[in-house]
Design brief:
- The chain is of the alpha+beta class.
- The chain has one domain: Roll (Nuclear Transport Factor 2, Chain: A), CATH 3.10.450.
- It is about 30% helix and about 50% strand.
- The chain contains three helices and seven strands, in the order ααββαβββββ.
- Strands 1, 2, 3, 4, 5, 6 and 7 form a seven-stranded mixed beta sheet that branches.
- Strand 1 and strand 2 form a beta hairpin.
- The termini are far apart.
- The model has no long low-confidence stretch (mean pLDDT about 95).
Length: about 130
């Protein structure tokens, strides 16, 4: 039997890859219907808003990758993930944001499958 942490880390990497590739099918599968993202600027995005922007190209990740180990807190049917990510995202009007962010995700197992339900990114300032 695999450790939960390994499974959820693999799903998180798959989710990031789907966002960068703008693969709407995989992204939809890995985000719960009630998913919510809180951006570094404090904006709240529903699944429809976030994945809609990915699908129509108004949000375009050029880079979204872990720069540190993905730490996993096993909560049984839920898991909290935290890691440092390097992100470069463009909007339809140009560069939207780039840098290093502390990224936190909550994954929940529902109906036998794991999906991301909450994400929050906080900018890491360089000294």
């Amino acid at each position: 039997m695999r450790e939960l942490g390994a499974d959820v880390r693999e799903l998180e990497r798959r989710r990031l890859g789907a966002l960068v590739a703008a693969d709407a099918s995989i992204a939809d599968e890995l985000h719960a219907d009630d998913y919510e993202l809180v951006s570094p600027g404090g904006d709240r995005w529903t699944k429809a808003e976030y994945l809609g922007g990915i699908a129509d190209g108004s949000l375009d990740y050029h880079v979204f990758e872990p720069e540190s180990d993905i730490r996993v807190l096993d909560l049984g049917t839920a898991a909290a993930l935290r890691y440092v990510a390097r992100i470069e995202i463009h909007s339809s009007s140009g560069l939207m944001d780039a840098g290093r962010f502390l990224h936190t995700d909550i994954w929940w197992q529902r109906d036998g499958r794991w999906q991301a339900v909450w994400s929050q990114a906080t900018r890491i300032t360089e000294d």
